[in-house]
Automatic annotation (TrEMBL):
InterPro entries tied to this protein: AMP-bd_C (IPR025110), AMP-bd_C_sf (IPR045851), AMP-binding_CS (IPR020845), AMP-dep_synth/lig_dom (IPR000873), ANL_N_sf (IPR042099)
PROSITE patterns in the cross-refs: AMP_BINDING
Annotated keywords: Ligase
Name used for this protein in its record: AMP-binding protein
Pfam families referenced in this protein's UniProt entry, alphabetically: AMP-binding, AMP-binding_C
Keyword Ligase carried by entry: yes
Organism, scientific name: Streptomyces chiangmaiensis
The keyword Hydrolase belongs to this UniProt entry's keyword annotation: no
Residue intervals of the AMP-binding enzyme C-terminal domain: 392-465
Length: 479
């Protein structure tokens, strides 16, 4: 474990390195400048807020929001980045729950910020996200156990929940990741995930700045621009939707990726076909698994094993403990449990968490000790007395040459109790009955979906995570 337990000290030790810390668009700052900006924000926050106050933001990914995070870290405040993809009423619910003292926004989200506050009971002070001028440098002790980030879960299956991340969690999850990534100051890390997502901070970006590397920030994801950035990158992380969009880009075959030694995929299952497209380009694209409550880094495929990894999420990161509920050792299937210094201490406003974190994800472990996620406990359904894991049915559907993506949900049925309904995105003409016949050749009868609907797209969150709650409602309405 690092001897620098707080984020503030990790940044400050590179102040005199002379290196570029962050690039974003046409803007770049050195470590000295970024550190000075963090000091300015810390002084400004101490004048206007109290220790422990939340500082909400509505903005694209930016250098200034990174400086603000480190300013919060030094002042004992908590950065609460909000998703600009949410509607005002959704944002208002998060603000009323966490009661931030400030709501800072960039120029592009002025109207969204104002519209949100019109729906709020709690009224934070609304200001532009602009570097404070004339603020004096600050000093003082930092509590490594104090929260520094408040990240909200995606709410893909229900209401978003706030997860406080403290300094120790952020450092610990970075150290775990570095057991695989092995970052050095010469590395160039491209951040493709938005900063309202936990991966926009604790999957590579904060680790890059802790190691003195250069971080390249994309304000918003654009496949062609991202590929150009990756041409000079050594590490990156994205979700399957982003990797798919880059692979589908006309620029994909033309861009050389000579230095990209690690590309992590998280947020959802990595289809084997998509992984092979990148492997053929010489890019070691490998599946990872995590959740906001664990910081998020939990499982990863070792870089040396990527070509045997399709469908698997690998082994625990160094320093992370995992187990399967009800399975003592060896191969088996059960709820994935996680324990370690990167695990949270409880949801915002909720009871303290201790011991093993119950992820709610159903995982399988093989004889190698590798894991793969086979579904959510609350996604499964019982058809005719038999348990069905949607992920298994989805894998069978995705194996069809015409299928791009598939999601299966369970809905009530008078005869069987519950049945599966599949929603499929296809690249060429295919019909539902043909896909059901495909499944019958590969799955037990009770696992075959009762209906298959071919759709243009699946409803997703801003990061491409499928909204199963929306699909369940669609399936019920079609009964």
């Amino acid at each position: 474990m690092s001897d620098l337990p707080d984020l503030s000290a990790q940044l400050r030790r590179h102040r005199n390195s002379g290196r570029t810390a962050v690039r974003c668009g046409n803007e770049a700052v050195s470590y000295r400048t970024l550190d000075a900006h963090a000091d300015a924000w810390a002084a400004w926050l101490r004048e206007r807020t109290r220790p422990g106050d939340r500082v909400a933001t509505l903005c694209r990914s930016s250098i200034e929001q990174i400086a603000l995070l480190y300013g919060c870290a030094r002042a004992g405040r908590v950065l609460m980045p909000l998703s600009y993809r949410l509607r005002p009423q959704e944002l208002a619910a998060l603000i009323d729950d966490a009661t931030p003292a400030l709501l800072l926004h960039d120029e592009g989200h002025t109207d969204l910020a104002a519209g949100t506050l019109r729906r709020c009971v709690h009224q934070p002070v609304r200001l532009p996200l602009v570097l404070p001028r004339g603020a004096a440098a600050v000093s003082g002790d930092v509590d490594p156990g104090a929260a520094v980030l408040l990240i909200h879960t995606s709410g893909s299956s229900g209401r978003p929940r706030g997860v406080p991340l403290n300094h120790r969690m952020c450092v610990a999850t970075g150290e775990a990741l570095d057991g695989v990534a092995a970052l050095v100051p010469e590395d160039v890390v491209v951040q493709l995930l938005p900063q309202y997502h936990v991966g926009g901070w604790t999957v590579l970006p904060l680790l890059a700045l802790a190691r003195g590397a250069t971080l390249v920030v994309e304000p918003e994801f654009d496949a062609d621009r991202a590929l150009r950035q990756l041409a000079a990158a050594t590490l990156t992380m994205a979700v399957p939707t982003m990797y798919r969009m880059m692979a589908d880009s006309t620029a994909f075959g033309a861009v050389d990726l000579p230095s990209l030694r690690l590309a992590i995929c998280g947020g959802a299952a990595l289809p084997g076909q998509l992984a092979r497209i990148w492997w053929e380009r010489g890019v070691p694209l490998c599946q990872g698994y995590g959740l906001t409550e664990a910081g998020p880094n939990v499982l990863c495929v070792p870089p040396a094993g990527v070509e045997a990894s399709a469908g698997w999420t690998g082994v625990p990161y160094p320093g992370v403990e995992v187990a399967l509920a009800g399975v003592s050792a060896g191969p088996g299937t059960g709820e994935l449990l996680v324990r370690g210094p990167g695990v949270f201490a409880g949801y915002w406003g909720g009871p303290p968490h201790q011991g093993w974190l119950h992820t709610g994800d159903l995982a399988e472990r093989d004889a190698r000790g590798w894991y793969r996620i086979v579904g959510r406990l609350d996604d499964g359904y019982v058809s005719g007395g038999e348990n069905v894991a949607p992920a298994e049915v989805e894998r069978a559907l995705r194996a069809h040459p015409a299928v791009v993506d598939a999601t299966v949900v369970g809905v009530p049925d008078e005869r069987w109790g519950e049945v599966g309904v599949a929603f499929v995105v296809a690249r060429s003409a295919v019909d539902g009955e043909g896909l059901r016949a495909w499944c019958r050749e590969r799955l037990a009868g009770f696992k075959v979906p009762a209906r298959v609907s071919v759709v243009e797209s699946l409803p997703t969150t801003g990061l491409g995570k499928v909204r199963r709650d929306v699909l369940r409602e669609m399936a019920r309405e079609a009964i």
